Amino acid sequence: IIVKDIHFSTKSDSFGDELTKATDSARSAFRLQQGSRFRDDDFRADLTRLKNDLVNIGFVYTDIDFSLDINQETNSTDIHDAIDSGPICHFSDVSISGNDHVADKIIRRQISFKKGDLFSRQDIDKSQEQIYSLNVFQIVSLQANLEQSRNAAIPVSVKIKEAPRFTNKFGVGWGQEDRFRASMDTQWLRFLGGARRLNLSLKYSALEPYHI
Questions:
Q1: Alpha carbon distance 42, 40 (integer Å)
Q2: From 44, 78, 120, 163, which residue has the greatest number of CB atoms within 10 Å?
């Protein structure tokens, strides 16, 4: 069965321009194109991509139904995607928990969105990476609190688990050239508060008696 054409329809005309741009962009990146051999895996991957693209421009509650119009005489099918976009959503308040020693303001500086911005899953993922980049946390989880009421203002919770304040690594060995060697590496997180880090590295060997 060959894909003849792909059609989109929406249940609401309120966001027609935004949805048209999103579907045109998604269509160009679909695995299934006109003339492609129809495959279930590619079809479902295309549906997932379309939904993710819509979520990233604020349509968090998007629901997509589909139908296949198969023509057995030509061994082809039209694909019909019916989109129920729901409301267009924006970020609401951001709550932070689990940070016992790092101030909220330090974490908030790493968040790439603010209250009132258009909702985007990409902004949530980017913010998570930027908070991790402080290198003082074991766990960073950002979760959009989606309500069953399909509220257009979406709060986000940031849950933190701080890494141990002190870590130490020791090593000893023997080699023909450097003979006895030893090393120690100490890391002190949240040094003098905030997200500062202090590293002390000591090494000794016959080739390099002292390295600090």
A1: 6
A2: 120
Do residues 6 and 32 lie in contact, with contact meaning Cβ atoms separated by under 8 Å? Answer: yes
CA 82 to CA 11: how far, in whole Å? 7
Packing angle between helix 16-29 and helix 40-55, nearest 10 degrees? 140
| pTM, full prediction | 0.75
pLDDT digits (tens, 9 = 90+) for 21-66: 889 999 999 999 999 999 999 999 999 999 999 999 999 999 999 9
Could you tell me how many residues make up the chain?
212
Q: CB-based contacts of 136: which residues, under 8 Å, 6+ apart? A: 102, 162, 163, 189, 190, 195, 197
CA separation for the pair 104, 111 (Å, rounded): 11
Spatial separation of the C-alpha atoms in residues 95 and 89, rounded to whole Å: 18
Cα distances (angstroms) measured from residue 35 to each of 3, 27, 32, 78, 151: 5, 14, 8, 11, 40
